[in-house]
Every structure is written in structure tokens, then in C-alpha cells.
Amino acid sequence: MSRPVIVIVGAGPGVSGSVARRFARDGYDVGLVGVHEEPLGELSVDLEALGAGVGHVVADITDDTAARAAVDELGSRLGRIDVLHFNPSAFRERDPLTLTVPELLADVTLGVGALLSALQAARPHMSAGARITATGSMAADQPWHGAASLGVQKAGLRNLVLSIDAALKDDGIRAVSVTVRGTLSDEGAFTPDRVAAAIHAAAHQDEADWRAEVPYSG
User: According to the UniProt entry, what is the EC number of this protein (predicted)?
Assistant: First the structure.
């Protein structure tokens, strides 16, 4: 049998890089979609050192056509998609009195809408047992007014993941949003590696007890 494959949308340093390495250590090949070549190249070297087959595509995932093409290319190149991980969000320090409608829509396109592009392109490469995971945030429930669009993104992302799970569960494909209830840090319970471990665990839940939202509180 071929090795399982994870495709990470919004790949780069931080949580997404830790997710890539965690799955690579578990025997997965890895596809990366990100906006900058240099961090994708550096991460690819790390993953290859762990024994993973790696493909990466530079794409602006807010461009529906480009996002779909990138995910489809990786699914075809790597032969399958067993896990689709969605990581991106936009942090824009604007409160509701200064945030404009175009800015809000741009941020939601990145942090929520791009998942639709990625999912619909990935679906032909997924079979029963495949999983969709997403990096959620406590901002969905406790938004900070100073970055108002972030809470909207994370609430929308969780809602969309719940709908994806309901739509695909009869096909044996499940989706989960991991709600990170803390602030990312270089040490302690909320390091990128610890969050990545929580995402890995959520993707490997027993389907009989599946939860489409899993909180991570450290």
C-alpha cells in the first residue's frame, strides 16, 4: 500500500510546520500549499529528512482557481489525500469602528472561504477514512475587539467544518476543528508542537465517538 498523505493549506513556519512534521513522523507523505517559496522549501527539507515524500505548490489561496489547482496538483502528484489540514487566518488589527467591509471580506476569504476551494479540489482524491482538520481558536467564542475580523473568521471556520462533517460523514469522511484555547508560545502548553499533537490526535479519533469540534486547553 502507498503511504498516507496529508495536504496542508496555508503551510509555513509555526503550527502548520509542526503539523507537517508530526504527520511525517507518523509515516505520512506531505503536500504543502503556501504563498512563499522560501519557507515551503525549508520545510520540505525538514520533512524529507524525516523520510517523507514531499510536494509543494506556491499559490495565493484567496484566488479560487489557484487554490483549487494547487490542491488538485498535489493530490494527483502524491496519489491520494488522507488528511486535508486547513491552517490560515488573517490577523488585522482593526476594531469594528475602523474595519472596512472589503477588509472583512478579504480576511474571511482567507480564513474561511479558501477551505471550500481546498475541500472541493481535494474531494476526488479522498476516500472513506479521509479526514479534514482545521486550526481553530478561542477567538470564535471570545473575540478581541481590536482584531475584529479574526473572531469572525474562526467562528465561521468552525461552523463550516461542522457542515462539512455532516455532509461527508455518510461517505466515511469526517471533519474536525481543533479550538486552541490559549495563546501560542515558545514554551509551555501552547507551543506549535503541542498544538500539532492535538490536531494529530483529533484526526485519529475513533469514528464511533467522533467530535467535529475538539477543544485544546493544554
Answer: 1.-.-.-
